[in-house]
């Protein structure tokens, strides 16, 4: 056995150990062969379930998902990673004294933190290989059918709520990938479907947007509308937003596989006073207040819109004067429309 082969022997277990040391909960390897579920993505597009995310229909997004090698022709292996985040208890959705945010938003935006960790992992791989490698790192930053790749790498199965579910960590984790030009021994795919006959996620979804084929109709998804939608939120959706200020985790909250992950955190909610403070922010203050936070995603307009919708369900004695004050100073027609709707909704609720 050559010195080079001795160095590479057991490299997969060393990579996983380092990934865990860096804070990842899950790690596995797979090949860059095309995903077999790509046709389902095309069917999803044909159904119009991408809603306003029309960029998903571009040739680049389609071709990259069709074959990972279109993103990096030199790729020989894909390292799939999972990074855990907390999920709140379902009881939180009944507390209209607080506005909720999705669990993945806790702390700094993962788009800043995870690439640093993946860069460290890639450099570690170079150190144990004794040579420079070609690699690309992604975390929700490129068109990849990452749930199928992760399942193929043994991380879990795609659940009925469309999330990847690990039997050890539930579904509360972010996915990330490192494409490398090094051939690694792939892990065994996760082939079990441990959802069984459970349908809690489908039944609990406020808008019933979860499809039987384990996809999501974004047109009805609260997460889509409060994060990705750049326009007015339809009334029929706004009426079901409840106290979700940013995102929605209900389909994960009710999942039996997440029972051990349910937790509470002061970062998981905003008070009425904090929402009112957001209404009073100008664009400069907004950028400063949410620097390095995922809450920048819907931009200033989106967060103002979301705050107005959630305030429509909150304490009338505080929220009504705040919405009225906002209306007096607002010039955006869509925000004016949302504020007027929120005011009318709030006045309907009993004192």
Describe the structure.
It is a single chain. The strands form four sheets. Strands 1-2-8-5 form a four-stranded antiparallel beta sheet, sandwiched between helices. It has a three-stranded mixed beta sheet with strand order 9-4-11. Strands 3-10 form a two-stranded parallel sheet. The termini are far apart. It has a domain at 3-88 and 100-180. The chain is built from 15 helices and eleven strands. It has 351 residues and is an alpha+beta fold.
Please write the string of helix (H) and strand (E) elements.
HHEHHEEEHEHEEEHHHEHEEHHHHH
Mean pLDDT: 93
**Biggest sheet overview:** 4 strands, antiparallel
C-alpha Rg (nearest Å): 22 Å
The main sheet orders its strands as: 1-2-8-5
Q: What oligomeric assembly is this protein in? A: single chain
